[in-house]
Amino acid sequence: MKKLMIAAVTGLVLSSCGGEKKTESTEQSTPAAQQEATQPENAVEEPVAAPTSQETLSLESNDQMRFNKEELRVKAGSEVTLTLTHVGTMGKEVMGHNFVLLKEGTSVETFASQAARSKDTGYIPSGDVVLAHTKLIGGGESDTITFIAPAKGTYDFICSFPGHYGLMKGKFIVE
Ligand SMILES: [Cu+2]
Q1: Ligand 1 center to residue 149 CA distance, Å?
Q2: 135 class by beta-carbon count within 10 Å (0-12 exposed, 13-18 middle, 19+ buried)
Q3: Domain 54-174 classified CATH 3.30.70.100?
Q4: Residue 160 alpha carbon to ligand 1 centre in Å
Q5: How many helices and strands in the chain, by DSSP H and E?
Q6: pLDDT along the chain (175 residues), means of 10
Q7: How far does residue 135's CA lie from ligand 1's centre (Å)?
Q8: Where does CATH 2.60.40.420 sit in the chain?
Q9: How far apart are the CA of 114 and the centre of ligand 1, in A?
Q10: Ligand 1 centre and the CA of 65: distance in Å?
Q11: Measured in angstroms, how far is the CA atom of residue 31 from the centroid of ligand 1?
């Protein structure tokens, strides 16, 4: 098949006169390749809310009740994959951690006090102020979540285990 096509192209080139014609002839002799090239363009129009890019974030938490980052940055519209790791050894009953991303303008203090009363749901209270969260993990564990970055802005993230948000907090910046 390849040999046949090369022969066809060579034939066309030989029958034409200029070097410029060579590329033209190649294009004309491969209509199938051209059709394939147009297919991905059509497919792109279908998923309207497709993420514009991928972001991978990793965040550590420890037995000293700390995250290793106070700031996380992503691009608006990107699909974010975040992994929270507990690098300590203490169990989640005494030193449990999670990552909770809050809607812009949420009072961290008010949310944290609601969260502290929501032990049965991993300290995630019901309501609509949580944009994304991991599960509660103990030493040696990790949890990975994927979510679409919210609109441009600065958001608070905390660990909602009782008493942790004072130290375990940071800014999630979408730009
Ligand atoms: Cu914590």
Answers
A1: 23
A2: middle
A3: no
A4: 6
A5: 5, 8
A6: 40 40 41 46 54 93 98 96 98 98 96 97 96 98 98 98 98 97
A7: 11
A8: 54-174
A9: 15
A10: 6
A11: 60
